[in-house]
């Protein structure tokens, strides 16, 4: 029996297009409105957010695409699935009982997808289109994936991502790595950029002050022109 390999695919542009779509030995499990028009095939799809048709992330095209998935033989998972006949409810409590009973790490769709993949018996789990590299929200989500990766590897499951992703690139070790060349170079560059930003902001504030002054001057000139300008004919210098 072939081992189960599951590709968990998000919408990060650096690697979402290079997932193993053409390799039938991989199941493709996707999520995110940013991926649905990119992935040429999916075996399962996870849409766990509050269903809000008309919101920017629930375009009419995406809503219709979701509704069509069960009829095309694709497993669609949701939290409340009344709007999608044939969809399956995410077994959230079972997954929490098994992987995160304290609810410390269930911070992203990819967490639930990875928990499902482990529960399904996957021997290889790969991440494509997943960086979780920017903003505080994604930093929080990254920890959940790292936690499940520890669990998966303890179970003998291979987990990885392509070179185009930095999902498993380690962060600086607190305190210890402050002595390293790379940390100090990054800090110096950040200080330089912070100073340049402060200078640009000061110049922008000064320019905005001038804009306000000139706008007020024009208003004053218009008032004077409409009200106080001498309206007698100008005859020019005497001849």
Polypeptide structure, described:
The structure is a single chain. By secondary structure, the chain is of the alpha/beta class. The chain folds into two domains: 5-160, sialyltransferase cstii, chain A (Alpha-Beta Complex); 176-227. It is 40% helix and 12% strand. Strands 5-4-3-2-1-6-7 form a seven-stranded parallel sheet, covered by helices on one side. Helix 3 (109-119) runs parallel beside helix 4. It is elongated and about 110 Å long. The model has no long low-confidence stretch (mean pLDDT 91).
Essential attributes:
239 residues; alpha/beta; sialyltransferase cstii, chain A; 2 domains; seven-stranded parallel beta sheet; 5 helices; 7 strands; 40% helix; elongated
Topology, element by element:
Layout: E1 5-9, E2 26-31, E3 44-46, H1 60-68, E4 75-78, E5 88-89, H2 92-99, H3 109-119, E6 124-128, H4 135-154, E7 158-160, H5 181-227
Parallel strand pairs: 1-2, 1-6, 2-3, 3-4, 4-5, 6-7
The CATH architecture of the largest domain can be given as: Alpha-Beta Complex
Per DSSP E runs of 2 or more residues, the count of β-strands stands at 7
Global shape = elongated
The major β-sheet equals:
7 strands, parallel
Cα gyration radius (Å): 29 Å
In percent, how helical is the residue content?
A: 25-40%
Show unreliable segments: none
Report strand %: 5-15%
Q: Any idea what the CATH superfamily of the largest domain is called?
A: Alpha-2,3-sialyltransferase
Strands across the major sheet, in which order?
5-4-3-2-1-6-7
How many domains make up the coordinates? 2
Mean pLDDT: 91
Output the CATH topology of the largest domain.
sialyltransferase cstii, chain A
Number of helices: 5
Content-based structural category: alpha/beta
């Amino acid at each position: 029996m072939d081992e189960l390999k599951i590709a968990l695919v998000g919408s990060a542009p650096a690697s979402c297009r290079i997932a193993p779509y053409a390799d039938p030995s991989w199941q493709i499990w996707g999520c995110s409105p940013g991926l649905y028009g990119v992935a040429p095939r999916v075996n399962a799809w996870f849409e766990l957010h509050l269903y809000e048709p008309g919101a920017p992330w629930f375009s009419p095209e995406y809503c219709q695409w979701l509704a069509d998935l069960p009829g095309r033989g694709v497993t669609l998972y949701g939290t409340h699935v009344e709007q999608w006949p044939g969809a399956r409810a995410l077994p959230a409590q079972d997954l929490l009982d098994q992987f995160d009973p304290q609810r410390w790490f269930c911070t992203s769709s990819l967490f639930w997808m990875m928990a499902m993949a482990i529960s399904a018996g996957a021997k290889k789990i790969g991440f494509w289109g997943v960086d979780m590299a920017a903003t505080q929200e994604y930093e929080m989500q990254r920890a959940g994936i790292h936690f499940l990766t520890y669990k998966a590897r303890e179970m003998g499951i291979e987990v990885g991502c392509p070179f185009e992703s930095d999902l498993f690139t380690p962060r600086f070790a607190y305190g210890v790595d402050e002595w390293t060349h790379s940390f100090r170079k990054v800090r110096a560059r950040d200080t330089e950029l912070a100073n340049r930003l402060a200078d640009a902001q000061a110049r922008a504030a000064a320019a905005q002050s001038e804009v306000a002054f000139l706008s007020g001057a024009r208003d004053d000139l218009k008032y004077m022109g409409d009200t106080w300008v001498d309206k007698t004919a100008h005859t020019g210098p005497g001849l």
